[in-house]
Design a protein that fits this description.
- It is a single chain.
- The chain is of the alpha/beta class and 515 residues long.
- 54% of the residues lie in helices and 8% in strands.
- The chain contains 17 helices and eight strands.
- An eight-stranded parallel β-sheet has the order 1-2-3-4-5-6-7-8.
- Helix 1 (6-31) crosses helix 12.
- The longest helix is centred in the last third of the chain and has 28 residues, at 348-375.
- It starts with 5 loop residues before the first helix and ends in a 6-residue tail after the last helix.
């Protein structure tokens, strides 16, 4: 017969085993190759991709003194020539005006971009140089794109944009167009269409106001393109489309390597069948965009920052290359916790518990590390978020093995982590569009804070309520988002563990009434 004291421990053991099985099952699934339709292209190269050289450390379009060398551009375009027949640029500044001459040597064509913003003096200089480059390289430049998402950014009025386009069209030897998100193009078509030779629209199912899951993404693109062809009289070019390989899930839209490959392959089948003109965003991952759009902004490339393709256009694809590293992290976690707990282990049951808890913590540590490599942007984030992740693992390990109340230093760390979790939960509600869910940082505490009781202050109870309420709200905002669900469960479970600790210590402190 199981005693009253043993029953909760057995239930806790079973729940932790279930978490381990779920983690292993998920990672095993990610290691299995997925059959996807292969690209129908006879020539494996794509029609066109967006090119930006800012995948290099310290390179951004905001660095005023940056000047690309011809050799840097040549290195990039040589790599891109293996995957595309054309590149799209967004500016002729910072040395990008050399792209057409290098592209000619490699047999590539160019959609040349002229950046238009708020500053009309800069706009004038940019347009003059773009016209000069386009007219001098009309054999390579197939289209001059004057302005990119200017109306989306509200940096020019539709009428002012029409004037820039009309001037460019009057002076250009190549077709002129304007590029923007499809809603803005269609909304302002009367001000734009008379001044362009083609209408260049962006269709990005992930970024829609109602994000599209990968299963519906291509159908959504077809509907939008059909609508544009109905409303516009000029030829329609898909100036940007694509799918991110990593980052925050938006409702049902999940960034992943497999989903990126699926989107590209399915799109290519349609584009080839219907003869569409298109451009993928983008050629190479752009780490600097993580400052603007969160983790997902840096992972739209067909190539990673080492210029290696992320996926082939034919054959099955797996999200991760092997399952063995997963087993290695679980094994290391189990071994380290067994070693840490050895002086306290009193039975085989204790050893089994420590191995189980260590394996779970090892897998969460792997999750933290993999996310950090994708998301952390500078030394401050590596230091602060890295410290939070490490402290979370260590505190959870202590709670898993300690036979008594947490040591003072552990209790202090737990209080700080609770405060950090509450702050993160609030930020996800008030400014969550580009923020990743910090589930991996706080999941260890959600799992193991139930193991011990300690005195909980009024401030800590308030933080726990904030964590619970904002975690629940974030999930309810996106009920179909698996990442939001997991974060909501993590936040609410961690918060409830704090309140449970408070109830246990309060009950233990009550004097026993005389009989």
């Amino acid at each position: 017969m199981v005693s009253a004291a043993q029953a909760p421990l057995r239930r806790y053991f079973a729940l932790t085993a279930l978490v381990l099985a779920a983690l292993l099952g998920w990672y095993w699934h990610e290691s299995r190759p997925i059959d996807l339709p292969s690209s129908p292209l006879a020539d494996p190269r794509l029609q066109c991709v967006s090119y930006a050289p800012y995948y290099r450390d310290g390179y951004t379009p905001f660095k005023k003194d940056l000047k690309l060398t011809r050799e840097e551009i040549a290195t990039d375009l040589r790599s891109l020539a293996a995957v595309t027949r054309c590149v799209r640029t967004y500016s002729v500044d910072q040395g990008l005006d050399r792209v057409p001459e290098v592209a000619r040597e490699l047999g590539l064509t160019v959609l040349l971009g002229s950046w238009i913003g708020r500053d009309d003096d800069k706009n004038r200089h940019e347009l003059e140089r773009a016209l000069e480059v386009a007219n001098a390289n009309a054999d390579v430049v197939t289209m001059l794109i004057v302005g990119n998402e200017v109306l989306l950014r509200r940096e020019q009025s539709p009428e002012a944009m029409g004037r820039w386009l009309e001037e460019a069209r009057a002076r250009s030897r190549v077709p002129v167009t304007y590029a923007d998100v499809w809603e803005f193009w269609l909304r302002h078509r009367s001000a734009l269409e008379p001044h362009v030779d083609r209408a260049t629209i962006h269709i990005l199912p992930y970024w829609e106001d109602r994000p599209q899951p990968i299963e519906a993404a291509i159908d959504h693109l077809v509907r939008i393109r059909t609508l544009a062809r109905t409303l516009l009289t000029k030829p329609v070019v898909i100036g940007e489309t694509g799918w991110p390989s990593a980052g925050r899930q938006r409702e049902g839209a999940i960034p992943s390597r497999v989903n990126q490959a699926r989107y590209v392959r399915e799109f290519l089948a349609l584009a080839e069948r219907h003869g569409w003109q298109y451009n993928f965003i983008e050629a190479v991952d752009q780490p600097w965009k993580r400052w603007l759009e969160g983790t997902v902004g840096g992972h739209w490339g067909m190539l990673d920052t080492s210029l290696a393709p992320k996926f082939p256009l034919t054959g099955p694809i797996a999200e991760r290359a092997s399952f063995w590293p997963v087993l290695a992290w679980a094994g290391m976690g189990a071994a380290l916790l067994l070693l840490m707990a050895a002086p306290r282990a009193a039975s085989g049951r204790d050893h089994a518990w420590h191995a189980l808890a260590g394996a779970v913590l090892g897998l969460i540590a792997m999750w933290q590390w993999e996310h950090a490599r994708l998301a952390y942007r500078d030394a401050v984030e590596w230091s602060v978020l890295g410290a939070i992740g490490l402290a979370s693992i260590l505190v959870a390990a202590w709670l898993a093995v300690a036979p008594r109340l947490p040591a003072r230093s552990v209790a202090l760390a737990l209080r700080l982590l609770l405060f950090c979790a509450a702050v993160a939960s609030v930020w996800l509600v008030v400014d969550g569009r580009y923020r990743d869910f910090p589930t991996a940082l706080y999941l260890p505490l959600a799992l193991f804070a139930w193991r011990r009781a300690w005195e909980v202050s009024a401030e800590e109870r308030l933080w726990a309520w904030i964590l619970f309420a904002f975690g629940l709200y974030r999930w309810l905002e996106e009920p179909g988002n698996g990442q939001a669900l997991l974060w909501g469960l993590t936040a609410m479970t961690f918060a409830r563990a704090i309140h449970a600790a408070h109830r246990r210590t309060t009950a233990a402190a009550k004097p026993i009434a005389p009989q």
